[in-house]
Amino acid sequence: MKSNQAIKALEALAQESRLAVFRALVQAGPDGLTPSKLSADLDLPAPTLSFHLAQLRHASLVTVTRDGRSLAYAAAYPAMAELVAFLTENCCAGACAVKPKENAVEPTARRRRRA
Fold first, then answer.
1. Average pLDDT, rounded, for the chain
2. Of 9, 19, 2, whose CA–CA distance to 86 is shortest?
3. 72 close to 38: Cβ distance less than 8 angstroms
4. Cα dihedral 91→96→102→105 (10° resolution)
5. Rounded CA gap, 101 and 24, in Å?
6. What is the CA 107 to chain-centroid distance, rounded?
7. Element (H or E) spanning 91, and its range?
8. Per-residue pLDDT tens over the stretch 29-82
9. Which SS3 state, helix, strand or coil, does residue 110 take?
10. Could you tell me which residues are beta bridge partners of residue 71?
11. Which of 19, 30, 33, 107 is in the most buried spot, having the most CB atoms within 10 Å?
12. Coil, strand or helix: which one is 109?
């Protein structure tokens, strides 16, 4: 990932509602969520949500698929993995760097939280 791409992604995430939208999409998995579900879950008016989704799409952090008249937005997991890898590329003298690979981040089954 180039610096300008990372900056665009970080700018998109540097707003409370957009970050909440992105996190909800990450949690939803590869099937994503409809705008109506996101709007209801996050208590965001449709026009506001539409604006935030457009910003996240412009930063290549979300994808959209159409099924007839329905839209579903999903997190772009490879872009998210690239951003994390970019941010940690020179971490700890290379001792803990995230190594990007094709489709490095894939949604997996939820792990149980320890009490």
1. 85
2. 2
3. no
4. -100
5. 24
6. 12
7. none
8. 999 999 999 999 999 999 999 999 999 999 999 999 998 889 999 999 999 999
9. coil
10. 66
11. 33
12. coil
Average pLDDT over residues 14-36: 96
Angle between the N-to-C axes of helices 16-28 and 46-58, in degrees from 0 to 180, rounded to the nearest 10: 80
Q: Which residue is it, tokens 């089954």? A: 109
Tokens of 91: 């971490």
- The amino acid sitting at 12 is A
How many angstroms separate the CA atoms of 89 and 25, rounded? 25
Q: What Å distances lie between residue 40 and 13, 57, 96, 105, CA to CA?
A: 20, 20, 39, 27
Beta bridge partner(s), residue 74: 63
Helical spans, DSSP H, in 14-113 = 16-28, 35-42, 46-58, 77-88
Helices (H) and strands (E) in the chain, counts: 5, 2
- pTM of the prediction? 0.78
| Rounded-to-integer distance, Cα 76 and Cα 13, Å | 13
